[in-house]
Design goal:
Length: 309
């Protein structure tokens, strides 16, 4: 049975540890400390960061079979790889849905991308209004997004968004050597990507078959599509860490990483209901699956409170 789409994020960033499996429990062994156990069904994401952490194949199998994602970090503590659940941890109609996903028409994929971009731009506008007091006209761009976003409104919004959020000198960078806020953003996005990828698999879709993102070497294209409207949740946390000046003086230390991981557990409101971010991600993935598989014409679900004060 797939695990619920909420769960614990375990971050092993410091010191030595060995992770193994015992009676459907993840056992954590540390030198000089009592053994600790966590039920597999309670785990959403495991982040392996410390170079002194080892994990057994049985534990990896137990985690992915339970529906958890595993993220591996490099020597700079930045994510370098990810393992997602497939098979028995997936949706009961996984094969059927994957075939339907492959057969999804180009117009359907373009309309889905239109909805994703609109939701992302609206979330960016909301974040700027909350943290900078003005959306810098980004909110008005959302209504101009057409099917497939041929006018690249997503990029137009980004040109206003990043300078408004972090200052005119800020440049968004994706490489692992990126300084300043980029290091925090890249880490937060990697954890978010793992959570979205897990939800995509649990909904019976294949994460490599994107509606917009494509790449022969990218196995998580659909996760990259669906996570776009949720990125501002990470951006807001980075803005709080940086402070009102917009200039980054924070390092990607264990405390900062804990804050970025904690974003997934924060409550967001939709129609008076408050749930953790990971819960809403699961609902977004389920609605995306229904659309791509021709089971529903309803818009892709995204919570109305993606960014809150």
């Amino acid at each position: 049975m797939p695990t619920p789409l909420t769960g614990r994020v375990l971050d092993f960033s410091l010191g030595q540890a060995h992770l193994c499996l015992r009676y459907r429990q993840l056992m954590v062994r540390r030198d000089g400390l009592p053994e600790a156990t966590v039920p597999m069904d309670e785990i959403a994401v495991v982040i392996l960061c410390s170079r002194r952490v080892t994990i057994s194949v049985a534990a990896l199998d137990g985690l992915t079979s339970s529906g958890a994602a595993v993220v591996v970090c490099d020597e700079r503590s930045l994510p370098s790889g990810m393992m997602l659940p497939l098979g028995q941890a997936g949706h009961f109609a996984q094969a059927q849905r994957m075939r339907a996903q492959l057969d999804a028409s180009l117009p359907t994929c373009k309309r889905v991308w239109q909805e994703i971009v609109r939701a992302k731009v609206r979330a960016q506008a909301s974040l700027l209004a909350v943290y900078r007091g003005d959306d810098h006209g980004i909110g008005g761009l959302a209504v101009r997004v057409r099917s497939g976003d041929p006018d690249n409104i997503e990029a137009q919004a980004a040109q206003r968004y990043w300078p408004a959020l972090f200052g005119d000198d800020f440049r968004r960078r994706f490489d692992h050597s990126a300084p300043d806020q980029n290091a925090l953003l890249n880490y937060g996005y990697a954890v978010l990507r793992a959570s979205v990828g897990r939800a995509v698999c649990a909904s019976g879709l294949h994460p490599s078959l994107g509606v917009h993102h494509h790449g022969r070497t990218n196995p998580f294209c659909l996760a990259d599509d669906l996570m776009e409207p949720y990125r501002p949740v990470v951006d807001g946390e980075v803005a709080e860490i940086v402070g009102a000046t917009g200039h980054c003086a924070a390092e990607l230390d264990p405390l900062t990483k804990a804050r970025l991981v904690g974003v997934l557990h924060e409550g967001l409101e939709h129609d008076g209901e408050v749930r953790p971010v990971m819960d809403w991600i699961g609902r977004s993935a389920a609605s995306l699956a229904r659309r791509l598989c021709g089971e529903s014409d309803e818009p892709i679900f995204f919570p109305s409170g993606l960014v809150q004060p």
